Input
Amino acid sequence: DAGVTQSPTHLIKTRGQQVTLRCSPISGHKSVSWYQQVLGQGPQFIFQYYEKEERGRGNFPDRFSARQFPNYSSELNVNALLLGDSALYLCASSLGGGGAPRTDTQYFGPGTRLTVL
Amino acid sequence: DQQVKQNSPSLSVQEGRISILNCDYTNSMFDYFLWYKKYPAEGPTFLISISSIKDKNEDGRFTVFLNKSAKHLSLHIVPSQPGDSAVYFCAASAGTSGTYKYIFGTGTRLKVLA
Output
């Protein structure tokens, strides 16, 4: 079975530009989460979507936005890029629900490495 | 405010011995805990999870222990293998928040020596 896929693998942009990152979840998964990982740190939560609705937003500026499509794939958009946005952007998918037992174990894609010059 | 802490940046263990990775948390609302392994240039790979209603969960060579009173969890790998060399992240989630976002620690780099 295919895992979480992300595109592109690598991306180089300049300050002020805009970028769109894409994610396809594992088949049957209805929730997608986005994380940013900078060198030496753990992943930081950006957004979570479930059934096309935003379910949560992390402490990131409004330059970051996302959406989920009817086929549960997702896009992360970052406007007005800053040097500090250089990071590995990770997408994770899960079945979605919490419940007991929890069914929201998140499975990560390989990430998109964004470099802002 | 670092809600999930991995205080050991690195750990070296001989092949065949036990590896113990530790994680501390501060938020008593966390009710689901996970361990991920990460190789360079790859995304984190899910290893094992534990619900707050349990204190131990095993999956093959991997066992996770949860001590809620101490707000501490640990991952035991027995026996350790060279292929286990990677960065290990613990993560925690508060299901009551309705978001199910994961809060990650900063990671521990494990090196298993042949």
Notes: The CA atoms of residues 13 and 97 of chain A lie 36 Å apart. DSSP finds no helices and eleven strands in chain A.
